[in-house]
Amino acid sequence: MAKGKVQRRARKILGEKPVALVWCEIHKPIPAPPKDVHRAAGRGRLKSRHHWLWYAGAVVFFFVVVPMILLDSLSRRLDQRLSGRSRDGQTGQPCPPDTQRSGRGRSRERDRGQDPTNGVFDGDWNLTAGQLLLRWYGYSPNPKRLVMLARDRICVAASPRRRLSPTKADDFRTVTEFTLDQARIDGEAGQPRGYATFRLAFADGSWLELGRLGEPEDADHFLRTVSG
Fold this sequence. Notes:
Layout: H1 4-14, E1 20-24, H2 35-40, H3 52-83, H4 97-113, H5 128-134, H6 136-139, E2 145-149, E3 153-158, E4 173-179, E5 183-187, E6 198-202, E7 207-210, H7 216-227
Antiparallel strand pairs: 1-2, 2-3, 3-4, 5-6, 6-7
């Protein structure tokens, strides 16, 4: 559960003890907005910034691991040719052309049937949820947001740090807030831990789905509160 410093910071921001709070984030990749909409919103980031260790790992992978894999593959092909087991280096029969075409057709059908918004929001970039989504990483490079419920409003806060501990972070600040006639939270209690989600639903009909709820006790209390 969020520790005392988080609770104290929340009380300071809200001016009262929060009814409920939970750390959460957009649990799916943000879909690509139209270029003109993205430009009008200031071309903000649509992905979180990685820690420097991630970039170091990527460099090691591409310049050390990948060459080793390629060399190993080349060595195996040469061994196969020399041993005469497979003159062409084949390890299996290729798919018949008809099968390949059929597979591509099914893939295209899946792509056409896929939700272009990825289930993240309602799909209208000009409404409240879409505009909030466009600025999500402008508030903080970290994807986590603290949603706090007060008696008369919903407050969304973020920490300026790239990495944070949800139980200890006490430097978060408000990035946006809504009165209860501007927004509401839709959620169900008793959802499986690790898969629980809720929606910020706005008065203009737009909505934004959030998941990866932090701290089970906070998440359970939050969902019980909004579903009651």
